[in-house]
Amino acid sequence: MKHSLASAATATGISKSTIYRAIKSGKMSASFEDGVYKIDPSELHRVFEPVSEKHFMKDEMTQTETGNDTALLQLEIDFLKQQLTRERDFVESLERRLDESDSERRRLTLLLTHQQEQSPVEKAKHSDENHLWKRIFKT
């Protein structure tokens, strides 16, 4: 039975694009029937070594040996959740402080812009100071 590109890739452990390039370059022969490449197994294994049964077993074993990593990953997730909670608390604290400083700024602005009228004595004092500056700078 002849291989398609996909089954040839599985049989050799080589990507479909590599097998396709081998066909296009003339390194390996294949027929093109009904829009699908048909590759004779002997021709395929002449160019690429077959994947052994031992290789498949090794891949299957490494895929199932991830149980030990799960506990480590869970610890990392828990740590990251704690760190995220701390960061959120910090941001809330900063937002609260910003709101408080904004309120204080508004209060102080109101105090500065709504000053009481100066007494006549203070007005005269400021007038004298202005007159002194005018004399100094001759304006």
State mean pLDDT (0 to 100 scale).
80
Strand proportion: under 5%
Supply the number of structural domains: 2
The strands making up the biggest β-sheet line up spatially as 1-2
User: Helix coverage percent of residues?
Assistant: over 70%
Query: What is the straight-line distance between the termini?
Result: 108 Å
Structural class: mainly alpha
Instruction: State the low-pLDDT regions, or none.
Output: none
Taken from the alpha-carbon principal axes, the silhouette is: elongated
Number of distinct beta strands: 2
Number of helical stretches of at least 4 residues: 6
Helix/strand order, N-terminal first: HHEEHHHH
Computed Rg: 42 Å
- Largest sheet entry: 2 strands, antiparallel
What does this structure look like?
Helix content is 73%, strand content 4%. With 139 residues, it is mostly helical. The chain has two domains: 5-64, no CATH class; 67-139. The chain has a two-stranded antiparallel ribbon with strand order 1-2. Strand 1 (31-33) and strand 2 (36-38) form a beta hairpin. The protein starts with a helix and ends with a helix. The mean pLDDT is 80.
Describe how the helices and strands are arranged.
Blueprint: H1 5-12, H2 16-25, E1 31-33, E2 36-38, H3 41-47, H4 53-64, H5 67-113, H6 120-137
Antiparallel strand pairs: 1-2
Helix pairs in contact: 1-2
Relevant terms:
6 helices, mainly alpha, 4% strand, 2 domains, elongated, 2 strands, two-stranded antiparallel sheet, 139 residues
Quick take:
The protein is mainly α and 139 residues long. 73% of the residues lie in helices and 4% in strands. It has helices at residues 5-12, 16-25, 41-47, 53-64, 67-113, 120-137, and strands at residues 31-33, 36-38.
